[in-house]
Specification:
The chain is an all-alpha fold. It is 70% helix and 0% strand.
Length: 312
Amino acid sequence: MSEKTMEKPPADALTAEREAEAEEKAAARQASLLKDGWADLRKRPMFLVTAFIIVCLLALAIMPGLFTARSPFSDGFCQLQNSMDGPTSGHLFGFDVQGCDIYTRTVYGARNSVVVGVVTTIATTLIGGLVGMLAGLAGGWIDALLSRITEVFSGLPLIIGGLLIMSIWRTGDVWSVSVIMAILGWPQVFRIMRGEVISNKYNDYVMAARALGAGSWRMAFRHILPNTLAPVIVITTMNLGVYIAAEAALSYLGIGIQYPNISWGLMISDAQDRFLTSPHALLFPAGALSITVLAFIMLGDVVRDAFDPKMR
């Protein structure tokens, strides 16, 4: 009677199998967190309200023609005889000092605000996230060097730093404002990403993947990065509102977006001296700015509560 021998699988096959099992568990953990967070978000009325406001804002920025038939760039749009006139049936927000329709300018002003907020947020997230991940993974002198560089940029507050740089680099367009705010804003994301990477790189599933021979980059992007996304998503959502407000502040001070571009900050600056006699010229663009910033900040709070297990 012949005895059948059982062949053991090669060591490489066992390593690959165990690594795949560790990756599957990590992916399932992250998928469960995102699924539970999304399910929790949909139950929150505040999320639905803020999401609706943000969708309307994005529609204003992408397709302003859906909300007004006029164009602020067309000939004869501004008529001085209408200067500072109040709201009428055909002009819901009234006119500004140049006799331009405030409603149309408010609608078209959303585009520059959204572009600055989105571009700056994407840039700061990519720069701060990648540099923070590198610092957290490498440790040692690399971490120390990158942390000292970050402290240099952190020493300049967003508005003060923007005042300093924009007073020298006076281009006054959307892209220059976005670049300057991205240069000043990435350290915040760096600190969050670095802290999350340091706290996650010694977890059991990461150590198991390291012991099974996973490379540094594979371990970083397959095991560590997915488990650091929740706090980054929260701060990114909040930063959108912060950068929109910062752009308005710089434009209000006269060194941000310049004419002929349209900005809520410019509209507020033009109307401030006539607030007592014609408050509508300031209230409508200021109201649009306040609602937009508040919507993004409140959305960030709701996202934080939903995706942070400690807040549940």
